[in-house]
User: What shape does this take?
Amino acid sequence: MAVQQLSAESLAEKIGVGVPGSLSATSGNASDNVLWVKPSSVADVAGFLKSDAGLDFNFLNSISAIDYINHFEVVYHLTSLNKQHMAIIKTRLDGREQLSLPSVYHLWRGADFQEREIWDLMGISFSGHPNLKRIMLWEGFEGHPLRKDYL
Amino acid sequence: MPIQTEPMTVNIGPQHPSTHGVFRLRVTFDGEEILEVEPIFGYLHRGTEKLAEERNYTQIVTLTDRLDYVSSMINNQAYCLAVEELLGVEVPLRAKYLRTLTAELQRVASHLMGIGFFLQDLGTLGTPLMYAFRSRERILDLFEMLCGARITLSYMRPGGVFFDAPDDFWPALDQFLHDFETEYKEIEHLILENEIVMVRTRGVSVLPLDLAINASVSGPSLRASGSDWDWRKKAPYDAYDRVEFDIPTATGGDNYDRFWVRIQEIHQSIRIVKQCLEQIEPGPTRANVPLILRPEPGTEAYGRVEASKGELAFYVVSDGGISPYRMKVRSPSLINLTVTEHLLVGWKLADMIVTLGSLDINMGEVDR
Assistant: This one.
């Protein structure tokens, strides 16, 4: 059976009940099928997606960050190996300084290196990560080279 | 009188013969026993994701070759799938078969290397490695006939493949498949029931299934722990929905099972190649796409394949320009290393090298 992508509406409905007040207004195309979450609620929503028996998102495929100059987007690709479905969660961080998101390390160990990489190259820190230090570059390196204003 | 021992911290690598590239492990030992491990990487970091923002969509194919450089065909494939999804391009059927066929040959080549170096790390001093390389060389020869390159192939392009296979490719492939049957039997006979391999690898560095899933481990390392998750089945791309194959799995999650799963996967890959050969029909090999591609602004795609190391994906975001606004590489080698500490602590120095070999990482892909 092929893996299905869950519709953002059905997810939003469940999260509206499970973690009220955690969703943010949709930006971007409705056809993208993306669930937009408030930055402060990322770990709560992730925890719900993982523990809800019907959703059961037990596999974190990847975490990506994108620099849009005035704001950053962080994208979580998730899959449930048991329920055979996937979802895309996005959050938007405004500004360029002192950016921080709650870590999902305690939910998925797979977030370990990926959050460190985003901190290293994009300069978004993750609160609650037990070992948040640079991963590709060395400690003491100045700047975050994947940002658009770095070269 | 008991002998007092003190913990000692040692650097294994960078530039150590058994670290599969420029990889460094900071290990604290008590005698031979491992107390703490910290993997340190970045020595091969070339900023591929940043470079991609300065290249056009066609040029980036060459960057993907240099990620997992023993598996560049599959890297090309993942990237091209992402760009095709961005553009909404349908790939011609013959190109789909050519891609599936070459990707499976590449998987065989990559797994042969994985198996060969795993045994090298066990201390077999070259013999199985040379057996594996003998067959791998034949596959590289086939690739050379297709595109003139052996390692950094860039054979696939957004919309299909660069060129149709030349006429003399098909008899050469038949000859390879014929010879490989015997060659691979020799390799299996040499290693599969080998007592030393069994004793050294059975029950060592066990990765339980729940931890493997929680740590986002994918590919043969996940399937050796009991899952049958394979993106070729779960979200078929190119011609994988038109061929039959099985997913070899094991339940032990130890070094032997990771090694065993790769050995069995080679059989399935050859099975897929043979079916592609039977089914492939003449036709165009590339969709009509321009050299300079401009996907719609605001579109994004997650091109995902089951690579030889695990789930490889390119997350590409377009702003309507000739280069991606952002290209993120989901690297299976990097993420599979998340479990390094769990696998190694409590085991001995000699097991450490073998465990690292059983994960089959590639530093080009870890550091990017």
Notes: The domain at 8-367 of chain B is CATH 1.10.645.10 (Cytochrome-c3 Hydrogenase; chain B). The beta strands of chain B are 8-12, 24-30, 33-40, 156-157, 160-161, 300-306, 311-317, 326-330.
